[in-house]
Amino acid sequence: MATAVAVEGVGRMETAEHELRRAFLAEVEEIPGGKRISRCLQCGTCTGSCPVSYAMDLSPRELIARFRAGDIQSILSSRTIWICASCYSCTTRCPAGIKVTDIIYALKRMALARGIRPSRYPTFAVAESFLDQVNRYGRMNEPRFMLGFYRRAGFGRAFKAMPMAVRMFFKGRIGIKASRIKGLDSLRKIMRRAEQLEIGVEHEVTGEIAPVGYGVVAARPPRAFPAASARTQA
Amino acid sequence: MRYTYYPGCSLESAAKAYDISLRTVFRLLGHELNELEDWNCCGSTAYTSVAETTALAVCARNLALAEQQGVDLVAPCSACYTVLNKTDRFLREQPELRSKVAEALGEAGLSYKGNLRIRHPLDVLMNDVGLDAIALKTTQRLEGVKVAPYYGCQIVRPERSFDDREVPMLLDEMLSSLGATVVDYAMKVRCCGGMLMTTVDDVALKLCSELLQCAVDSGADVIATTCPLCQINLEAYQDQINRRFKTKIRIPVVFFTQLLGLALGASRAEVALDSQLIPFEPALAPLAEAVHV
User: Fold this and answer.
1) What confidence category does residue B8 fall into, taking pLDDT thresholds of 50, 70 and 90?
2) What is the DSSP letter of A39?
3) How confident is the model at residue B172 (pLDDT cuts 50, 70, 90)?
4) What's the ipTM?
């Protein structure tokens, strides 16, 4: 049974959506100039400037419209947030100064924290493998990072990349040896402390995100994204 | 001049040619690049997608270490350049984030005061070194080499930019001052897809095919990039692009520092020409007798 609360400017809103809205606004507050999202004119410059909007289900303009209409759930289960390549064309051109790219980063964080991991848009696999590298070595070793990515996203993808990888290898462009930084311990201390200070860490997550057709197999139980320092024991 | 150098992870492997040629260029021009001791990964775009404060803190360790050196920090990788600058700006503009990150850095006995300039080598070479100084040291003009300058996204957007965001010109100016023919093409700041080549390659292959085709149609024989990820995306996937879009694109993609290095008289090895997947000697045909092919 969905409960509802009244939200100024939006009307009655389901509790789950209300929680998402609170979390989203907390994220937006942390972005310099983030509050300008309220100034959106719905002009569509963002969508027109976006080189990948043709592949999105929600255009960047529509994404902001949905937030206003109180429908963050549909944004988090859209493919849009995973297709953004962060080229910042929208951010540069927005006449209202809205930080569209940074807002999409915030939405990615919210989605990952809630267990949304669409297999066709494996940004989660990039992020996890990347964090793993930073936590293990302090630097990102490209081949190890890619292996970690394939392990999480499926080795079918590796197959396609093989011919290219082989050529890169023979050109000496695949450095297998990972360079571990000397200050790894102190970097991990920094990471652990920062993770504790992260907004959203104390958030009570309520409500599940309904899966939609493309690749979201099932909505996983909401859970926090595992802390990098907790995952890898090097 | 003296600079601190932040190579970034890509320059340790796939983009080694960028690292080698950049060091060569600075040496030949008589400027000092000192690699930042024990730098760590900037966090790239991936970390920001997971945890903002932690991403900023990881990156800020580099800022704190670099600030101690007292000179500008040079970051050649576009992603590093943007992430380092963005972290600096977030910390300056958001007091709450600043105090959280300060607390995290404190765990390692570090602090960042915000007195560091993070710069791209294109900015440094054009604005500190200058075309006059480069001209004086140029021994091999690139006459007849038709080049498409490609800026990509992240050095012109979104952080305080040293060039126009829509129509940047510094790389055009540098290459034409070296004698190269700079072709006029519409997509010099269009996105190559970045990490989408790994996650959603349908989209990235299309972006790259449009970009490459545009450069070829404009008469370019070589594309000069400023970013390791752009370089891989544009060079290494041409076979896949040709199969998918039934095209016959084959155009070398080099780092702008490789071209600059050649103009300054560097040898093949000094600009790591052998690491190209698509050899760019054909583009250098006009200079064939002078460059040791």
Assistant:
1) very high
2) G
3) very high
4) 0.90
- How deeply is B78 buried, as exposed, middle or buried, from its count of CB atoms within 10 A (0-12, 13-18, 19+)? buried
Dump pLDDT digits (tens) for B141-151: 999 999 999 99
Give which of A193, A201, A190, A194 is closest to A138, Cα–Cα.
A190
Is cis: bond before B252, omega within 30 of 0?
A: no
Domain range summary for chain B, segments of one domain joined by +: 2-119, 139-287
Question: What percent of chain B has a predicted confidence (pLDDT) above 70?
Answer: 97
| CATH architecture for residues B2-119 | Up-down Bundle (1.20)
Nearest by CB to residue B103, choosing from A83, A146, A197, is A197
Q: How far is B136 from chain A (nearest CA, A)?
A: 33
Checking if the pLDDT of A232 tops 70, the result is no
- What's the topology of domain A4-113? Fumarate Reductase Iron-sulfur Protein; Chain B, domain 2 (1.10.1060)
- The reply to whether CATH 3.40.50.150 applies to domain B139-287 is no
Q: Could you give the C-alpha distances from A111 to A22, A122, B75, B237, in angstroms and in order?
A: 14, 12, 31, 30
Extents of the domains making up chain A: 4-113, 123-192
> Among residues B180, B191, B109, which one has the least CA distance to residue B147?
B180
- Please report the residues numbered 187 through 216 in chain A whose beta carbons come closer than 8 angstroms to any beta carbon of chain B: 187, 189-195, 197-199
Contacts of residue A135, defined as CB under 8 A and 6 or more positions apart, other chains included, come to A188, A191, A228, A229, A231, A232, A234
- Beta-bridge mates of residue B3: B33
CB contact under 8 A, B104 and A197: yes
Three-state secondary structure call for residue A118: coil
Please name the residues between 242 and 261 in chain B that touch chain A, using a CB distance below 8 Å: none
Helix H or strand E encompassing A135: helix A123-137
Measured CA to CA, the distance from residue A124 to residue B212 in angstroms comes to 29
Q: Please say whether the beta carbons of B17 and B232 come within 8 A.
A: no
- To probe the interface with A, which of B10, B35, B49, B189 has the most A CB atoms within 10 Å? B49
Q: What is the CA radius of gyration of chain B?
A: 19
Residue B246: left if φ>0, alpha if ψ -120 to 50, beta else—which one?
left
Rg (CA), chain A: 19
- Of B44, B28, B12, B18, residue with least CA distance to B254: B18
Using a CB–CB cutoff of 8 Å, tell me whether A146 touches chain B. yes
Best of A116, A140, A167, A231 to disrupt the B interface (most B CBs within 10 Å) is A140
> Is A46 within 8 Å of chain B by CB?
no
What one-character DSSP code corresponds to residue A115? T
